[in-house]
Amino acid sequence: MKILGFTLTALCAALGVHAYNSAYDLTLNRTAMNSSVGHETNRPLIHYTPRVGWMNDPNGLFFDEETSLWHVYYQYKPDALVAGLPIFWGHATSKDLTSWVDHGVAIEPADDVSGAFSGSIVIDRNNTSGFFDNSTLPGQRIVALYTEDSSSKQSQFAAYSLDGGYTFNYYAQNPVLDINSTQFRDPKVIWHDETQRWVMTLALSQEYKIQIYTSKNLKTWNFQSNFSHYGFLGYQYECPGLSKVPVLQSVDPNTTLASNNSSSVDFKWVMFLSINPGAPTGGSVNQYFIGDFDGKTFTADDSASRFVDNGKDFYAMQTFSDTPTNEVVGLAWASNWDYGAYVPITPWKTSMTLARNLTLRPYKPNPESSQLTLYSEPIIDHSILNTTQSIKKASLNLTTEESVFYHLTKTAKGLLEFTLEWKVNATAITSKKSPAAMTFNLRGIEDEEEFLKLGYEVNSGAFFLDRGISDLDFVRFNPLFTTRLVHFLEPYRIDQDGLPVYKVHGIVDKDIVELFFNDGSSTSTNTFYMSEENFLGTVELSSSVDDVFNVLNLEIKQLNTM
Amino acid sequence: MKILGFTLTALCAALGVHAYNSAYDLTLNRTAMNSSVGHETNRPLIHYTPRVGWMNDPNGLFFDEETSLWHVYYQYKPDALVAGLPIFWGHATSKDLTSWVDHGVAIEPADDVSGAFSGSIVIDRNNTSGFFDNSTLPGQRIVALYTEDSSSKQSQFAAYSLDGGYTFNYYAQNPVLDINSTQFRDPKVIWHDETQRWVMTLALSQEYKIQIYTSKNLKTWNFQSNFSHYGFLGYQYECPGLSKVPVLQSVDPNTTLASNNSSSVDFKWVMFLSINPGAPTGGSVNQYFIGDFDGKTFTADDSASRFVDNGKDFYAMQTFSDTPTNEVVGLAWASNWDYGAYVPITPWKTSMTLARNLTLRPYKPNPESSQLTLYSEPIIDHSILNTTQSIKKASLNLTTEESVFYHLTKTAKGLLEFTLEWKVNATAITSKKSPAAMTFNLRGIEDEEEFLKLGYEVNSGAFFLDRGISDLDFVRFNPLFTTRLVHFLEPYRIDQDGLPVYKVHGIVDKDIVELFFNDGSSTSTNTFYMSEENFLGTVELSSSVDDVFNVLNLEIKQLNTM
């Protein structure tokens, strides 16, 4: 990460082994964690949030096979609710990607006018780096590569952990990669089996280049190629990452499970890339490109721009290193640089998204073409959650005469999961002079006049979301907090009667809603803010037209942690 | 254009010479034009609107050197306020691109379940087509190429005019290009001098291909190449167009006019492309790609996605053929397919944008790079406008203590032109915990509580627009009418004191606002809707921070047609 326009009064950066001697009390957040602070009722239940302080991009994601723990690090400023220097790597672990343990600061910058900026972690099983001896299990030979942001430049540092990722030793010969640039950051390292090399992608940010370097030992890096000027450019490139993503050839909702089992599994390479600011929807956005990688050069299949998520709050997604069965699991920052510092939440600011399982699948964006598309499925361990209430309806014909209400308010904690599948009979639209919309409002339990408005409009073919119906000044008056979002949706499947069917799977967790359309062919992640403890708990289904919408399936669960 | 999801009860299309015998009264709009209809006070003064009926994409734009008239055709359904079949080419002319004369229908489809879809016009000076004899002046040998949309396919038709573009004869051997596709449309034809060929670009829409064909006679077309899978794909490609755009090498606002005069003039080819639906901001959007063209193949310089305009209401831009000095002048539909049919305006629906002069210039999107960018400057003939009131201020330091109001209400007709240039001293921001915003509200003259909120926020580096502050139900409740827009802005120049200066030039014409940032390096065109006759007439400048914003120049003119 780079704080836009942040100007530093120059101070030399003491490179080499860190002797961090800051005015900041790094025990602050540990103390705070153990006490009851602030508005805990607003804290998401299954999305990671730091106990106190500012958090942004996820860093160093990896899975520890020895402990079966998922490790998440992140850009962290424990003593502030806004980004600035110094910035650290915070650290959290999860055994299920659904519940989280906060471990406070893990990696520090060299001094208090520098930053331990974004980066990644790999497991150096074969000790290519020489950082380890036999006292460290191969599966716990943890090496972090990250950007040290100083007043004079951004260079790449290495650090390693001998205790399973809780504390780090800084490599004495840092930096490991330095091209004397102030805009060179966010190394994501992977092991490329075919060439038996480590591969680093990082951003030469303001030149719109993703640079690719290779190494045998994580210490000496050789430039191989640039992948540049792809996608939406915005102000600058940030947080690139290369992943080998499984291609599921046949995932057709019309076919039976048996035929799905015969799917072949193949792989394609995907380059992820974030830009900020300058997203077309404002602020931050995460893009991806599908292609091939030969160990040195990434070649995109085409020149199309595609977004990982179409919401306003999904940035800097990183994938986990060393996942158990090589599945591709990613997680992003669930906020936006345009307003993350201003959201009406204390004593922490911002959350991560849920972890997502990522695959590539053939997808029909229209009747005449098919293309590989990134599918995202949320990872939730339901075994650690109670369903406190649930509603299930089928074959509900919507009319203009009445709205259908379902109240889920018994023990509302603000955690809802829903699936809505609907069929559209466009021939029943009698006039195109007004929208033909189904609305699926999620209303507050204390005040139903605050609500999240979701829905689908037939003539535009679009799913819409309005997060602007709130009493909070932040929502009403911050013009950067764009409230209405529109997302074009292709049919999930065509029913036996020839009518299109659409599907959305949603997770609401206090002030975050993640929407997964059509099994995850597109997604939209957005934060929303309502009056304190006015959690969403009442569902309202209505239609502006008669006999156009048939809800084939509606399932809503109110969940709670055990 | 293609109406999404429009299903036709199949009827064969009578190809060949048209014998149009419709139930529609094509004289309807001519009659209506001569009477006083509906809410004429809401009609834009210098943006083209049809007198009655539905209008969308501009078509067949050309300049007639014999009459010095600019001709604009457009997708037109005179008897409806929503798109549908049959659809026609409407026609208007202008001597100054500021005032408009409506001529009603010019081109018809073959029958009333077909459409004369989008296309273009060229001047066939040398009579390559054989459509003309010496009775038609070379500069008035007008040939239209357009898509005939029938229930079975979309094929390309030719028609020619012997009376200066007011009526057309249909080529007896139509179609001139037919690949038996239902998604093949919007031919834009240019003369390529280097190869002495006509070049047609058109969309193989749902395959995301811009196809390039060449011809010697406008009748026989040979396939040359595809330009495919570039930019944001959306649901489908529409309205491509290739233009040879002047490159102004040195346009530096810090240099004097004298040094600007020494600029070299060169050219690059630009491919324009519209997509709808599926824009990241919802619905329709217009993209462009800069590159080279050898007469057969367009090669983009890079794989970046760029938008012609960043607002919600700018679609299907086309450039004028045969402009007087080969300047590139374009004009777009100032609406969005997501909601164009629902806007609270009668008895016509939707407007065109102002014409724009288009050039390519070096532009610095950030401190470390420079790239060619499309610059757009509005074309307004001020000689036909009166300035009824004007305000000019310089060096205005904004504080949190008071807002500055200027009232322009004497003879308000809703036509305003303004220039705002401001300097930002970010070091005066005392806290990053809240936005550092300058707002430039344009308030209604009848009800100041309805207003268009514009402004700039320093921490995000973004210009914002909120068109949601209105009493109208359409604005308040239509979720597809996204209200808040955010547009990242680079400095226009750096002042002598090292501080960044930004600039916006705006034109408000009843319910349309067109914003041109930094001499046109980016633009944002948006419609907005307020209570009847509540035209914008009061300007309010305010700041959420002290001493950060200095307005170097503010000029506002209230204009009227003579």
Automatic annotation (TrEMBL), chains A, B:
One of the record's GO cellular component terms: fungal-type vacuole
Claim: Hydrolase is one of the keywords in the record: yes
Position of the signal peptide: 1-19
UniProt xrefs under SUPFAM superfamilies: Arabinanase/levansucrase/invertase, Concanavalin A-like lectins/glucanases
Keyword Hydrolase carried by entry: yes
Alphabetical UniProt keywords: Glycoprotein, Glycosidase, Hydrolase, Signal
Matches recorded under SMART domains: Glyco_32
UniProt domain Glycosyl hydrolase family 32 N-terminal: residue ranges: 47-361
Gene3D superfamilies: Exo-inulinase, domain 1, Glycosyl hydrolase domain, family 43
UniProt GO MF annotations: sucrose alpha-glucosidase activity
Listed GO biological process terms: sucrose catabolic process
Domain Glycosyl hydrolase family 32 C-terminal: residue ranges: 396-544
Pfam families: Glyco_hydro_32C, Glyco_hydro_32N
Family: Belongs to the glycosyl hydrolase 32 family.
Annotated protein name in UniProt: LAMI_0D00188g1_1
